[in-house]
Amino acid sequence: MIDEVLSLYFIYGAISGYLEKVKIKGQICLFFYEGFFMVKVGTKENGGVSGENGFSEDYWASNYSDPESMDCIGNVKEHFAYLSSLFNLEVIEINSMVDLGFGLGAMIKEGRKKFALKKICGVEPSFYAFETMEKWKSKYGIKNLTLKNMGMAQWLEKTKGKYDLGLCNSVLQYLTNKELEEAIPLLSRRVKFLYLTVPTDVELDFQIRDHKFKDYYARRRTRAFYQKLLKKHFTFISNRLLESRYFFDEETTLFTNLLYRF
Ligand SMILES: C[S@@+](CC[C@H](N)C(=O)[O-])C[C@H]1O[C@@H](n2cnc3c(N)ncnc32)[C@H](O)[C@@H]1O
């Protein structure tokens, strides 16, 4: 009897010892996998994954845990109050709008309230976000809104549409250099005005310092990089607002304060 108890005890010990080893091994693998993942996608100037094919659930879980605290979601009304005042001041009508990388669609929803839009388009590669907005669109039976489940680089290759206003908030940091070099000239042919926000390397550091948030998907690029890329195809009007050089003419532009052109 004692022998049987001892052998059962021995078997139990062997099994739990084995399981413990597997667990530790698993943890080591996970540690290296996560390390590799972060190096692969995060904080590199070039290389790593692009958002062009859509982000998986990891992105939405890590980056969207508190959407209301995000710029252009929690304060979307203030953004559109600013934009519509600026356009009203210059007596410029905005009849069409495209949102590139619309996420949860806060800017599309607010833009519809502030401008008398006849045509709206939303482009979003992540299926989770696209589907959320599709459901909202069909719930309210919105006819003049077209939603595309694709990346902006791919959409720009295909589209022939033109829009008075383009929105691109916190998206360009997810494109590769090559995608950006191809997309920006095409974008300048599609939108007359562009409301653009993109975090530079300095601002990505602020996010880490002030909000303890590290965006492993974002590419770190300098202000000089983005300005060089953009200024061939857009002129800077004011904070976040650009005008396409494809449409811009110094003598006919509707934004008349030419001092504020860079
Ligand atoms: C920080 S969120 C911003 C969402 C939205 N613009 C807003 O202001 O609420 C970044 C979004 O960009 C999208 N995205 C990433 N790469 C993209 C690409 N190549 N083309 C279009 N959208 C992209 C993501 O799927 C995500 O919805």
Characterise the protein shown here.
This protein has 262 residues and is an alpha/beta fold. It has two domains: 2-42, no CATH class; 69-260, Vaccinia Virus protein VP39 (Rossmann fold, 3-Layer(aba) Sandwich), CATH 3.40.50. The chain is 48% helix and 14% strand. It has helices spanning 2-41, 57-63, 76-89, 106-114, 127-140, 152-158, 177-190, 201-211, 223-231, and strands at 96-100, 119-123, 145-148, 163-169, 191-197, 234-238, 241-244. The protein has a seven-stranded mixed sheet. A hairpin with a 2-residue loop joins strand 6 (234-238) and strand 7. The chain is globular and about 100 Å long. Mean pLDDT is 87; it is low at 22-47.
State the main characteristics.
single chain; binds S-adenosylmethionine; 2 domains; alpha/beta; 262 residues; Rossmann fold
Question: What is the strand tally?
Answer: 7
Flag low-confidence runs.
22-47
Instruction: Give the number of helices.
Output: 9
Largest sheet: 7 strands, mixed
**Spatial extent as radius of gyration:** 24 Å
Shape call: globular
- Which percent band covers the strand fraction? 5-15%
Which fold does the CATH topology of the largest domain refer to?
Rossmann fold
H/E topology pattern: HHHEHEHEHEHEHHEE
The overall number of domains is 2
